Every structure is written in structure tokens, then in C-alpha cells.
Amino acid sequence: MKPTQTLLSPFKLTLTLGVTLFALNTAGWALTPQSREAYLQAQQAERKGNLDAAERSLRQAIAMDPQDYLNYVKLASILNQQGKPNEAANYYQQAMNLNPQDRMILYSLGGVYEQMGQYAKAEEAYALSLQNNPRYQFALLNLARAEIQQKKYQPAIVHYQQFLNQYPDHYEARRHLAKLFLVTGQEPESVKQYDILKHRFPGQFGEHLDLARALNGANAPEQALEELKIAYAREGSKSDIDEEMGRAHAALGQADLAIHNYQKAYALNPKKDDLLLRIADLYRAEKKPSPAIENYQAYLKLHPDDQDVHRTLANTYFEDNRYEPALNELGLLLQSTADPQKRYDLQKDMAYATQMLGDLPKAISLYQQLMGEPQAEKDLQLKSNLAIAYHKDGDYSRAIPLYKQIYSADPALLSASQINRESVGNDLAVALTGLGDAAYKAGDLNAALSTYGEAVLYAPKANYWPHLGLANTYYALHMPEKAYDAYGMVLQKDPGNVTAKLYRTKLAMDKPVLANAPTGKEPQGISSISVATLESLAKDNPNNLEVLITLGDAYERQGNASGAISVYEKALAQDPQNVELLLSIGTQWQKLGSFEQAKSTYLRALTLNDKLPATYYNLGIVYNELGQLDKSAEAYKQAIALDPANADSRYGLAITQEKQQKFQDALESYQSYVRDPQARYFSEAQTRIELLKQALSPASVSPQGGGPASSVLKPQAQQNAPLTSQPLIKQAPERIELNTPLPKPVKTL
Q: Cα–Cα distance between 92 and 129 in angstroms, integer?
């Protein structure tokens, strides 16, 4: 809010009236003796201060000699001294009719008109006087004075300049000229005139405050402060001086000092309430909305109908994130505003405030109402805010068309609306990514792929989310080459992206040729590069559960059971209820031959979930290794009960029953096993079946009776049984988490 220049009685001019009787040259008078005698009597009466007698004598003189214009001039002068300017003007006019060439009559008539406040007539009289006698330069002073009274400042400047060409050391004329330049906004010219006065009349010069005003206006605040220090030393603390000091400090960026000076100025002169606005504006510029609001409110208590300040107060509430009072101010303004454009802008900001308060349905309703107004057709801000409201409300199908409309708008219109096309493209890409996320989560991977692909077209360089969505979708669709490349694009945009690094490494682990193996052939096992990548990720992200589990899996596939256990244990510390982790840890203990530790781990898993067949299956193996055959058999039976289709459990049970010398039970278990088309140990099982049949035949029974002879049937070695559960299968991520903040609406410019 720009302060206005206050004119503080800029011109105190001495009114120079017409000539007196003493100034008249009587040498050329052609008077009758009687008229002359009456004039002389008037002259004597005037000298004695008896103006009434002088008036009577002059009226007698006019009656005796009505053609003598000087008698009219003298009478006009006497009447003016008596405070009868109207009559004086009349007699000056009569004198002019008798002798139009006398410049002094016009000069004196101008003075009378000026005294009566008839400045246009005074200006005319002074101008005519100059026409009759251009060399009478002092008439320029009176002419300029009359022009000033009519606010004809530029002609007055010209006339002062003309006068000063002849009389350059005339102090008052130059002072008035400097003031004229100041009040007309020509501060550099004003500074020049004040500098001339200051150097030519150092003892007389006292216009330090006005010079400071001119210097401030001429962008010389430091010099202005020097002049103000002199003014302060001479006059003490005054409102005008403190105000101008505040202006200088504000120009120098010294907001605290400026505010202090303005506050002092206001305390000294509370009538200058516009200072409250300057203080408020400074606080606002300093990003201190709370004290700014206090000063705007103080001003509005004195001027409650100032609509502009109410609007500024509402904007300051916005800057302070105080949307409720902003909404109240806007509502009051709307009630008192009839202008259609202002009403439109107010309603748009009310919708914005409602949106920022979190009431998206109401904000959307208000925006939609405004969309029907004619101003909305080219209002990109309105469309942008509505698109963002739809976006934040999760209504991507409505947000996306609006974003596209804004994105394709004319660049000049975008610039005029202060909308960045790239930012709109980013918002559009984020909305499309959100739509893709919804399709991904719903399992519609083809729709997700299409939507992410469109998002990529609009996303600026820094926005990697659509590429991450593409990569995850390719991963879920088992398209490893495309997924690998898409994750690579994510890493180009965000080199530290953990998800992209992790899944790219997983793909390289499953299909090492993707990582450009030097031999050109697909290497066996897990590459050291993949493991190193995972180790680095785990070091930088020690709390990322998926990174830890993947590193454990990599160690497991390398055959590094101890390393796998160490990492799995770290993961388990973060997720103690994770049964799959416990199974993975138990499996690695099995590989190390630490069956007691494996047993303990599996039993802990059962306390968390006793319905997983894999746990019982692995326990069956462990109990078998520990020689606890009854427990082993029972565990296998539990696994079969929970998952009858698991053939490996039947095979393990058969081996255990054979060790228990329950040959008939073992035979039945083997026979059940080989009927499964998925039987991995079919040939081994067939061999055991034949041996058991032989052992159970009557010819093989000992004379004493009982079971098969131990010399005939040797139990199968345990190594033929599967030792571990199947590796855990890691799924693609369920959805992309949008960590980037949603776009914010834009308030009216």
C-alpha cells in the first residue's frame, strides 16, 4: 500500500496588493483645481489614518472630474484598505475603462481578486499586466501564486523559473519553486532547488525536512537521514520528522527502524492514521502477519468503510494461514460489493479459503458455481484450484480433464495467470499416477500400465513416480526386461530411490543376464554385484524390512546360511510376528545342521500361527534328524492334514514310518505318494515299495513271527527326503505410495 504525499501548507505567500496613494506619480495629472484640492485632502486624511474622510474627499473629486482615472484608482485603494474589496474591484474596473494602458491598475486589481479568493480573475489580471509590461517581472510572482491556488502547478513552475532567470537570488521564489517540484513528484528537480538555497543562503536555510522529503523521493534515503538529523536537532521530535525518518529507513530496508519511527510519528500525531497502514505494510513485507493484522484492524476501527483495507486484511489472514477470519472478511466485503468482477474474485477466494479449511465438498461446490460465470472461461486459476480440489478429493476422473485443459492453454494466458505449465504437467502426472495406483490396487494391471504410460508424457524431469508405477506393473506382469529398464529410468531421475534399486537387483538376481554379465551368458547363482548392492542398501536403510529380507534371500541363494540368519534376525527384530521370517531362519539352521536351533525356531513359529503346513513339514524333517521319530511322524501328519496336496509331506512320513519299522504304514504312505503326479522322488519311492512288499510277503516272515527281518529291509537314507521347505516367493509391491505432496490451490492474484 503506497503512502501518498501529504501537502503540509506548502505555500505561505505574502499578498502584494495594489499601489497606495503614496506610490502614484501626480506629475501628469490634468485635474480641475477643485478635484485636485479634494485629492490632496484625501491624501492628508489617509496619512492620518482617517480612511473615511479620505473616501469622502475622493468621491467629491470624482464628482468634480469623472474623467480623471487616478481618482478611481485612489478610491479603490482606500476602499480595499477599509475591507471593501468588492467596491475596490469595481472602481479599479472603472479606472481601467478610462485608461486601459496603465499596468498598475491591472496589477492592483489582481491583488484584490486574489484577496477575495477569485483566483481565476486574479490570474487573468496579472497575465494582462505582464502583457502590457513584460519587463515588470514581479508580476510573475503574483501570477504564479494565483495559479498555485488553482492547482495549476506546472504553469506556476514555469513562471517562477522565468522570474528566477532575472532574480536568481530571490529566496522565496526559489523556495516556492522547490516546493512545487516536491508536491508535483519531481523530487530530483526539487533537490536541485533546495541545494541551491542551502549553498547560497546557509544562514537562512531551514527547509531541511522538505529537502529530506525530496531526497527520499529521489531515492537518496541516506542523504535524507542526514537532513532529518539536522531538522531533529533544531526542532526536536516532531511527527513529520519521525514520519520522514521512517520513510528513509524503509527505503534502506531497515524495517524495524522504520516501524519504530512510524510508531513515534503516530503517537505524536494520532490524526495521521495512514501511518498505521505503513506500519502494517512493513510488518507484512517482513513476513510478520500477526502485527500487520493488528495495525490493519486498528486502522479499520477508525475507517470501518475502507473496502481496500478490508481486502488487504483478508489477504494478510491468508498469509497467516488464518482462513476462518479471512472467510469472514471476504463475506462482509461480498455483502457490500455490487461490482460483478469484484464479487467474482471475492467468491473465488472464499472457495479457496474453504478448500484450505479442508471442506473439499463445499469448496468444489463453490468453484463449480463460479464455473458458470462468464469470467470463468479464461480463468485458469479457477480451473486449477477446482482441479486440485477434485485431485485431493480423490476424484481423478474430473481433475485430469481440467489439468489437460490448463496444460494446453495459450502460453500468454498461462503467464498472465502466473501458472507454470511444467507444474501443471506435474500435477497432471501425479493425478494420472493416482489413477494408475487405483487400477494397480484393483488388479487391473493393463489399465494401470496404460495410465502410468500417459502420466510419463506429462511428468517433468524430477517426477519419477509414473516410471516407478510402470516398473512395478511390468514386474507384476512378469515382464522382467521392461521392468528392469523402467526401474533404471527411475534411478536416472532419483539415483537414491530404494524401491527401484531393490527391485532392479531382485530382477538381476532372478535373471542375471539383465545386468549385462561380462560373458554374455547367464551366470549361475547370485552375482557379487547384486549382493553388494543389497548390502549397501541395507547399510543405508537399516529399518527397511523388505531390503533386509531380500538381502537374507540373496545370502541364502549364495549358500551363505550364517549370513542369511544374521540378516533375517535383524528383520525379525523389526517384525517379530513374521512367521515367514521364522521359517526362513529355521531353514538356514537346518542347512547348517543345527537342528536344535531349527526346532526352536519352528516351535516359535507355531505359537504365532499353527495352521501353516510348511512349519509342520520342516519340523518333521528336524525331529527326524534328531531321532525323535514319533514327533516327526506326528508333524508330517499335521502337515498332510492342513495340505493334503503336499506330496513331500507323505514322502517324509513314509521315511519316518520306515525308520519306526512300521512297514505296512510306510508302504501305504509310499504308495499314496507315487500316485501324485508331482512326486519328486518317484523312482526312490518305487524302490522302497518293492522292498517293503518283499519284506511283508509271507516268505519273508521269520519262524517266530513278527515283522520283516531287519536283514531283508534296510531303511532308506534320510538324504533322499526333501530337507527344506520351498523358498519364500516375494510378491510385487501392492501399490505405489505417493510420498510427494499433493499440489496446493492458488489464491486470487
A: 13
- Output phi, psi for 708, to 5 deg: -65, 150
Place of cell 548390502: 535
Q: How many CA within 13 A on the CB side of residue 152? A: 14
| Distance from the Cα of residue 293 to its chain's centroid | 19
Q: Report the C-alpha dihedral over residues 691, 692, 693, 698, rounded to 10 degrees.
A: 110
**Cα–Cα distance measured from residue 480 to residue 476, given in angstroms and rounded to the nearest whole number:** 9
User: Phi/psi of residue 697, each to 5°?
Assistant: -70, 155
Q: What pTM was estimated for this model as a whole?
A: 0.66
The string of pLDDT tens digits covering residues 250-270 is 999 999 999 999 999 999 999
DSSP assignment string, 8-50: -S-----------GGG---TT----HHHHHHHHHHHHHHHTT-
Asked if the model's pLDDT at residue 27 lies above 50, the reply is no
Which residue blocks in 205-358 are alpha helix, DSSP H?
A: 208-217, 221-235, 239-251, 255-268, 274-285, 289-302, 307-319, 323-335, 340-356
> Which residues, 6+ apart, have CB-to-CB distance to 498 below 8 Å?
537, 540, 541, 544, 547
Asked if 508 and 483 count as a contact pair (C-beta separation under 8 A), the reply is no
Query: What residues contact 150, with CB distance under 8 A and at least 6 apart?
Result: 119, 120, 123
Contact assessment for residue 494 and residue 464, using Cβ atoms and an 8 Å cutoff: yes
Among the listed residues 373, 350, 344, the one whose alpha carbon sits nearest the alpha carbon of residue 362 = 350
**Cα four-point dihedral sign 360, 366, 372, 378:** negative
State how far the Cα of 442 lies from the Cα of 718, in Å rounded to an integer.
46
424 exposure class (CB count in 10 Å sphere: 0-12, 13-18, 19+)? buried
Angle between helices 51-64 and 69-81 (to 10 degrees): 160
What's the confidence (pLDDT) of residue 384?
94
Between CA 533 and CA 487 the distance in angstroms is 15
What is the band of 276 on the pLDDT scale with cuts at 50, 70, 90? Answer: very high
